[in-house]
Structures are given as structure tokens and as C-alpha cells.
Specification:
single chain; about 200 residues; alpha+beta; three-stranded antiparallel β-sheet; 4 helices; disordered C terminus
């Protein structure tokens, strides 16, 4: 009987974890495409989600939120394990500055200010021209691409970490969105002009 009771508790815990994971999948990947450019392959993706009231409260009180976009490009091989051709990660930081009363969205050294949270989120939900595979990487044949977005709760201050473990108000994430790329090739290298500088200036 004790063994049956123990197994029952384990199954209940697993069921609750599965339900929690399902509730956390609140970001929808509406569209994702990869296109060739002179620099390599770039990703355009559209996401749909709303911040929970708790996350809105956190960011408006000066605590930044970090969102992460993950990308993978895999080449399927029937004779061996699939080959991972490229993996990339993009970090987006959403913050609020009380003195200027503006929201700021930044990635790396680039940043942009917005008057409202809605304006900042509209840009956050649209990833454009993100270089995911450099031109020097040789490509040929069919590939599977995958992209996802999630709120990186590991970068929240420590006082919020307990809430991460006990509730779902701080969790935002999408499942992997997978799509096939047929006959994928890199764009040809740009042809350098042999005209001397200033030759076209009159």
C-alpha cells in the first residue's frame, strides 16, 4: 500500500509539472522565415504574447526583464545523427526609466526608447534581419530551422527567484517553432567595385 501511495504521489507531481509547463507556453510564434543576404542568412520572426500583471508591475518599478530568442539550424542525415549547423542566441532587455518616463529596449550596444510599454512590446515581438548563419558557413541541401522565445527568469534579482519556483506569473515562453528550408544555399559574395573612390562624384 505504501508503494502504491508513493507512486500515486509521484504521478500527481509529474502531472502538475506538465500542467505548469503547458500554462507557461504563452508566447506564440506566428511566423518565422530565413532569407539569404550578402552577410549570410537572416531570420525574420513574429511573436504574440502579453505580459502578466506581475511582470508589468516588475518592469514599471525599475526591474529590467530579459527575453531570449534561440535559433537552431539542423541538417538531417539518414545515415547518421542529425548535424547541427548553427545555433544562435539573441538577448533583448526591456527596462523602464522613471526620470525620463520612457521604456527602453536594448540588445548589445543598440537601444531604442519608447513612450509607452505597448510601443516597446510591439518592437520586442518583431525580430527582423537577425544574422543567424554567417556567409562563410557552407550550406547545401535541405535543413530544419527552429526558433523560440522565452522570458529569462534566471536574470531576475534573487528576491524574485522564489516566485519563479512557486508560481507561473513570471514565466513566458514558447515551444520550438520548426520549419523546413529546401535547397538552402548562401547568397553569392558581393562583388567589390574596382572604381577608384570618388570616381562617381562630379
Amino acid at each position: 500500500m505504501r508503494r502504491i501511495a508513493f507512486l500515486t504521489r509521484v504521478l500527481l507531481v509529474l502531472a502538475s509539472c506538465s500542467a505548469f509547463a503547458a500554462l507557461a507556453d504563452t508566447i506564440e510564434v506566428r511566423n518565422a522565415t530565413v532569407r539569404p543576404t550578402e552577410d549570410g542568412l537572416v531570420l525574420d520572426a513574429d511573436f504574440a504574447f502579453e505580459l502578466t500583471p506581475r511582470l508589468v508591475d516588475i518592469v514599471t518599478n525599475g526591474v529590467p526583464l530579459y527575453f531570449r530568442v534561440d535559433f537552431e539550424l539542423t541538417r538531417r542525415r539518414w545515415y547518421w545523427f542529425d548535424e547541427t549547423t548553427a545555433t544562435r542566441r539573441l538577448q533583448l532587455r526591456l527596462s523602464y526609466h522613471a526620470l525620463s518616463r520612457q521604456y527602453r529596449l536594448s540588445t548589445g550596444l543598440l537601444s531604442q526608447n519608447f513612450s509607452t510599454l505597448e510601443e516597446a512590446l510591439n518592437v520586442l515581438k518583431r525580430v527582423r534581419s537577425w544574422l543567424v548563419v554567417e556567409r562563410i558557413v557552407p550550406l547545401s541541401g535541405d535543413y530544419e530551422a527552429a526558433v523560440r522565445m522565452r522570458h529569462d527568469t534566471s536574470l531576475l534579482p534573487k528576491p524574485f527567484q522564489l516566485s519563479v519556483l512557486t508560481g507561473r506569473e513570471l514565466h513566458l515562453e514558447s515551444p520550438w517553432y520548426r520549419f523546413t528550408l529546401h535547397s538552402l544555399e548562401q547568397a553569392p559574395a558581393p562583388v567589390e567595385s574596382r572604381e577608384p573612390r570618388g570616381a562617381l562624384e562630379r
